[in-house]
Amino acid sequence: MPAVYTISAQSSPFFEEVLSKLIYTTDKTTDNTDNHNNLPQSPKSINAPNAFRIKNVNTKRINVNNDDDVSGQKNYKVLNYQNDKMNNAMYGTCGILKSLLFTEGNKLLSFSPPKAQNSENFVDMFPDLSKLQVEEFVDGTMINLFWDTAHDEWEISTRRKVGANSYYYTYTNDYHQPTFCSMFYNTAKYCELNIDQLDKNYSYSFVLSHPENRIVTKVNEPRLVLIESYKISSNLSDDMKNCSYTVEVQDRASIMETDVFKNSKVSIPKQYDLVSYPKLMEKMNQLNNNSNLLKGLVVRDIITNTRTKFITEQYNTFMFDYKTNCADFRFMYLNMRSKRTLNNYTNAFPEHNELFNYYHNLLCDYTHFLYELYFECYRYKKKPLSQYPAHVKTHMFNLHQIYKSRVDVNGKSKMLTIQDAMTYVNNLDVPLLYDTLFVVPKVPGIISTDL
């Protein structure tokens, strides 16, 4: 029997609270951002204060072949749990609300894999690994694909962005990675997945791996990995107590045997035959030393669809110590530079060498620019400090304080060198240096980073 999730007022007081807010909200639709409506609280909110949010969003209908071709508008409701408000007792209720998408009329269109259990709790719940499914933890971005019954077309979403017409990594002010929408449809084409032939009764959750969306694990070619698929039923009613939703998890192996998937290069996560948790830890040690920087393993109980994840130390090091889970490559570069971890990073990510060299040259240019303006102001007296732009004025003043601190008993001071300016810039706090280089107004006649 496949796992089934039921959301109804009868199944849980928590779901009664969720349905109350979902059905009775009259807030106006907002744009497709991460802001959420300030919905009124009801007495039952005290059971799980702020544990979830409902966001009314609209999204423009996008031509999948051209992100700039926009026509019409679609309105939805997005329901998510608030991760920082979760506790272990809420995994069976709030934990299934990772990303649910509804029509304006409250029909459920899309469902996402629920929150993974803490590994320690999971091992206590499922001590016999031989009865469980162990598979690759695929590194990438979750994309949900569903049939929009209101508009008679397939639509996609990330966890919070309907249409997925967004991106994560920023390289300069005018340069960022492609949108998830374009990467998904390009990858679907690359994998020869005929989306129009998919079963419209199902919602699909994929992980998108793409060379232009590398997180940590090495990606040589675009890849779509089917994680789960669901058959969703909506029993709608104006009376919240009679409204319910049923989500039936489909057998993935059976889905992959359908013609549309058999004729494609869409894959499922690599499976591992491990009979005990000590064997699992041995496999984790092997993965931890893999040069491809693999993410880890997912363990799942197929009957309940409860899962947990094991992440390699190597992956966590790159994700949180080097990249610091940062979307802005400029900040990432400055942060790793200050921690002296750039070489370790570029050894694993050689594709970023050219970009980081660009940032390095910009930093050098700024340092020389600052040094020249300092002399122009304090030695040649061309104009007062107050007339210089903000992103150099404070640093010019600070350099002069260094100069004055070197005055000897004879009232003379050693002249500042370019090396002094380099030392000063190198010792700036990362956020301040970032703002200095990249968050500055354009001033006529003044060097522009334009990054």
What is the CATH level 1 assignment of the largest domain?
Alpha Beta
**CATH homologous superfamily designation of the largest domain:** DNA ligase/mRNA capping enzyme
Spatial ordering of strands, largest sheet: 1-14-13-12-8-9
- The name of the CATH topology of the largest domain is D-amino Acid Aminotransferase, Chain A, domain 1
Report the C-alpha radius of gyration, rounded.
27 Å
- What number of domains? 2
Second-tier CATH architecture of the largest domain = 2-Layer Sandwich
- Please report the number of helical segments: 13
Helix content: 25-40%
Distance between the amino and carboxyl termini: 55 Å
Give the mean pLDDT.
Answer: 89
**SS class:** alpha+beta
Question: How would you describe this structure to a colleague?
Answer:
There is one protein chain. By secondary structure, this protein is α+β, with helices and mostly antiparallel strands. Helix content is 31%, strand content 23%. The chain contains 13 helices and 17 strands. α8 (329-339) packs across α13 and α10 crosses α11. The longest helix is centred in the last third of the chain and has 26 residues, at 353-378. Mean pLDDT is 89; it is low at 28-47 and 443-450.
